[in-house]
Every structure is written in structure tokens, then in C-alpha cells.
Amino acid sequence: MARESWKQRQLKREKTVAKYAAKRKELKEKGDYEGLALLPRDASPTRLKNRCSITGRAHGFYRQFGVSRIVLREMAHKGLIPGVRKGSG
Asked: Could you list the residue range(s) of the whole structural domain that residue 75 is in?
């Protein structure tokens, strides 16, 4: 499981990206790259990392469900995901 600080840092980045999205778009349209450079680094959407909403795991992430492969498997076995069932046997 990911450390709680990583999850919190990711949430902070998401808020920063949302806050500066309009400003970044405006500066990009103008071609003002010096102005873009003055914005916080975490304002760039490329700094975001897909993480499991439950465990915070970064690898094996399924975008459709918003969770990692491990959590997806557990939820599917418990019947928590509609339309998903075991593939064999």
C-alpha cells in the first residue's frame, strides 16, 4: 500500500492543476512560455500520476474502474463490480 503522504501529495497536485488550468491554456494560446515557466511546477497536468483510489498503488492501474489490478480482483470476487465475473472455471 502506498504511503498516505503520496496519496495526499497527489490530491494536492490535482487541485493545483485544476486551479491553474485556465491560466495555462491562456498563456499557451498567447505563446507566452516565460509566463508558463513562472507558474508552479505542479500546475502541469503531466505531473499527475494515475493512482488507485483505495490503496494509492501507481502500477497496474485500470482507468475504467479507477483502481489497481489487485483491488479490482478483490472487488470482482466479492461481486462489487457489476458485469464483471471470473473468466475461467
From this structure: 50-89
